[in-house]
Write a structure and sequence with these properties.
With about 600 residues, this protein is an alpha+beta fold. About 35% of the residues lie in helices and about 20% in strands. Among the domains are: about 160 residues, no CATH class; about 100 residues, no CATH class. The longest helix has 22 residues.
């Protein structure tokens, strides 16, 4: 799961909307106080909302363990609480892998790529002093316009079910006779459950001008009559088991439909005569109407048009919604089904399902699930790492993260000797001349405790020294090296990795990042930095063919009168910049020498 694009509107220094292409390695440059750190802070805001919000109605957790943004007034652009805050994420999601039953025809025939995006917009209710969600937009592929828009709506009780299960439920002939109950599809307990919610996301708009719909119509419009026949045959096949429907033989579709409709009506009328219960009679009348609607459905798709598709789907999807926790869509909902179950439009849902309709709720849920997976994979390393100590006490924590200050680094190295081995290999590549070893304390006072030390062995002299007695830069780079190799398919947010690090080590860090974007690591890096040497190494790797230009995204953030702007600086096949750097950046050496 990889983030491919990120957009911010009205967040701290950004007025926006400001869009940033995200690649396996994304470097964010810019002057001090330009808003570089705000990009990472906004992602941390979203991550801590997902992981720390105790109340599902809390939309954003501004104060958390990862970042403290104060309040909406503090992080909204220019502290203008009347301004809306929004962000957009575009993710590269393997649709075929994620939803095998739905993904293959959709990804192979309708979507040009696996890009799914979500945009969340928020407002501030000044009367109630709280944040409100205003809308959620679904994006498919690279088109800039949304494919669908959801808006929050209040409701007391709704029915919660899987997408497109309504058709079979609407056709269930549950009239009190066991054989009818057995012959017709009965939904499983997992298909539907009642849930009390205060609000949900209701589908408000479908963009039928989106290319995915045009592709669908070209691919599947001719299959609609066949899918209709298939579904109606399935229903009659289920009904044929009861007495009076034995022995029928497959004839032409028109004759079969007419004959079965007539036979079923006769049998149901017999049941009506022998049972005078008013409720039973009402149910029978409903089922008779359903059979008639089935007969009409047989010719429904004759001379069908794309305009009719839009009309039918608008009717069908008006009952579609999503429940959400915080701001994340979490489950598909079917709204007001009781009032709509007799509508013929519900009988179209299984037909459309057979034609792999690009159903917006399912795609929104897929995008939301991918977004949550992405946030869970985010690992943050801050600009100031822990100062090395002479000894450590082993904790009971089982973690795969060094922590934002690198605090858990000693524990990880003590418990994972394979990572220790990989770390020492990197120290050799960096040319540091040291090997790191874990030394349990064996002095009598500490013999039965969990005390240990991190020691460095000088490869030239063999001298054993404490990590606290060597240059501070080594302790600052260790958490970055370890986390880069410890993570798998994760996104690492790193602030100023170059702090206290020699220029040569900054360049070597670029090689490490490039290595860890590839198997078996497959990590993604979003780095706020001022390091020219890191950039030069990545340019060299592109020139040597070890990286592609599209593997690296360079974003320059600069302040303007209407807020900070993001400038994407492109690279060519030789690693050279296609776009010029803004004046004054990386020119200090030249100015000092020749100025």
């Amino acid at each position: 799961m990889m983030l491919r694009e990120y957009q911010l509107t009205n967040f701290k220094a950004f007025g926006g909307p400001e869009t940033m292409p995200i690649r396996p390695i994304t470097l964010i440059y810019g002057p001090n106080s330009s808003g570089k750190s705000s990009v990472l802070q906004s992602l941390l805001l979203l991550k801590q909302t997902l992981q720390e919000a105790e109340n599902p109605e809390t939309l954003l957790v501004a104060k958390g363990n990862l970042v403290n943004l104060g309040s909406y007034r503090e992080f909204i652009h220019r502290h203008d609480v009347s301004a809306p805050f929004s962000f957009k994420v575009v993710l590269d999601i393997d649709i075929l892998k994620t939803i095998t039953s739905f993904g293959k025809p959709l990804s192979e025939n309708l979507l040009e790529n696996n890009l799914l995006g979500l945009q969340f917009a928020f407002d501030y209710d000044q009367n109630r002093a709280n944040i409100v969600l205003s809308n959620v937009q679904l994006f498919i592929g690279e088109e800039p316009s949304p494919a669908a828009i959801y808006k929050p709506q209040k409701r007391d009780i709704i029915e919660n079910e899987n997408p497109f299960s309504s058709f079979r439920q609407a056709m269930q002939l549950s009239i009190g006779e066991d054989k009818f109950k057995q012959d017709i599809y009965t939904p499983q307990d997992s298909d539907i459950e009642r849930e009390e919610v205060e609000s949900f996301l209701k589908l408000d708009f479908i963009n039928y001008k989106h290319s995915v719909w045009q592709a669908w119509w070209e691919k599947y419009s001719s299959l609609l009559p066949r899918e209709t026949e298939k579904e109606l045959l399935r229903l009659f096949e289920a009904l044929k088991l009861h007495e009076g429907c034995k022995g029928w033989r497959k004839k032409t579709w028109t004759n079969l439909l007419t004959e079965k409709s007539r036979d079923l009506k006769k049998e149901l009328e017999i049941y009506l005569k022998i049972n005078e219960d008013p409720l039973f009679q009402k149910n029978i009348e409903i089922k008779l109407n359903q059979i008639e609607s089935l007969r009409r459905l047989g010719s429904y798709f004759d001379n069908y048009s794309f305009e009719k598709v839009q009309e039918d789907l608008s009717n069908l999807t008006q009952f579609t919604g999503l429940s959400y926790r915080n701001f994340f869509p979490v489950q598909c909902l079917n709204i007001d089904k009781k009032e709509s179950s007799n509508s013929e439009v519900w009988k179209l849902s299984e037909v459309y399902k057979g034609c792999w309709i690009p159903e917006s709720s399912l795609l929104t849920m897929l995008a939301s699930s991918g977004f949550r997976s992405f946030l869970n994979s985010v690992v943050y390393i801050g600009p100031l790492r822990e100062y090395p100590e002479r000894f450590y006490i082993l904790s009971d924590n089982l973690t795969k993260q060094v922590g934002k200050s690198g605090k858990m680094l000693p524990d990880i190295l003590f418990k994972d000797r394979n990572i220790l081995k990989l770390l020492n290999e990197q120290l050799t590549r960096f040319g540091l001349g040291y090997e790191l070893k874990i030394s349990p304390l064996t002095v009598e006072d500490y013999a039965n405790t969990d005390f240990f030390a991190l020691r460095l062995i000088d490869k030239y002299t063999g001298v054993n020294v404490s990590l606290a007695d060597v240059g501070f830069g080594i302790s600052q780079v260790l958490p970055i090296i370890v986390q880069s190799m410890l993570s798998r398919e994760s996104t690492l947010l790193i602030e100023q990795p170059e702090i206290h690090i020699h220029p040569r080590l900054q360049a070597e860090l670029g090689s490490l990042l490039a290595e860890c974007t590839k198997p078996p690591f497959r990590n993604q890096f979003i780095i706020e930095t001022h390091s020219e040497h890191l950039m030069l190494r990545l340019q060299k790797l592109i020139r040597k063919g070890e990286l592609k230009p599209d593997d690296v995204s360079v974003i320059y953030v600069d302040r303007g009168s209407d807020g900070s702007k993001c400038l994407h600086l492109r690279l060519d096949e030789e690693g050279d910049f296609i776009d010029e750097w803004p004046d004054g950046f990386f020119e200090e050496d030249f100015n000092e020498i020749f100025g």
